[in-house]
Amino acid sequence: PGTGKLFVGGNWKMNCSKKQAEEVIGFLKSGKLSDNAEIVVSPPAPYLEYVKARLPANVGIAAQNCYKEEKGAFTGEISPAMIKDVGAEWVILGHSERRAIFHEDDALIGQKVKHALSAGLKVIACIGETLQEREANKTEEVVFRQMKAIGDNISDWDKVVVAYEPVWAIGTGKTATPEQAQEVHVKLRAFIKSNFQKDVRIIYGGSVTGKNAKELASQRDVDGFLVGGASLKQEFVDIINARQ
Ligand code: PEP
Fold this sequence. Notes:
Bound molecules: phosphoenolpyruvate
Oligomer: single chain
Mean pLDDT: 97
Number of helices: 10
Number of strands: 8
């Protein structure tokens, strides 16, 4: 922990056009990207193949969501098999926007994690407390509950990255302090060790920028980042290079 490659994911959310994708691909190609980083970008599903075809081969591609079935009468959904078929190898699951806006609960997220892994995808699994939960001193209770629901469905921990994303820090410009992130990451690591006897990479998400990435990356138990807003900007390169 804290010493391996920095895992840096870029979550584009529902922001993309071919033109905007070209811009991001442009700075990823022209910027000098640290060899000490594993990079994955996550465009909206219609652009997965387009982006994959244009990025350097060492940049991975993730879908932002998937369903828990391989195929069938599930209008509007996409399956892990489809994501793999168009050349992506990762999927983000349990993002707080999926939980809050689309009412995904722990049970469904667990089922999705299980199916995605069995279909051969790698998973970025997101957890995190709301401001209200933090202020009620429920951070541990909430992230442990979310982690248990996910962990119970993990068949291969090497194929999973856990993203700790405090909801109050996502898209708000309010970043957790390096100490706040480190504190939760340590607790999560211990929880995973005692419940599942496994080690897993734990990345931080929530208003990571080119400016605050270095200090966050210096924390012992921060193995990388999931980046929203800043992943569409030139500063994403600085985040990738935060631990040279
Ligand atoms: C995210 O979408 O996972 C995220 C952390 O967003 P932002 O970096 O914009 O806070």
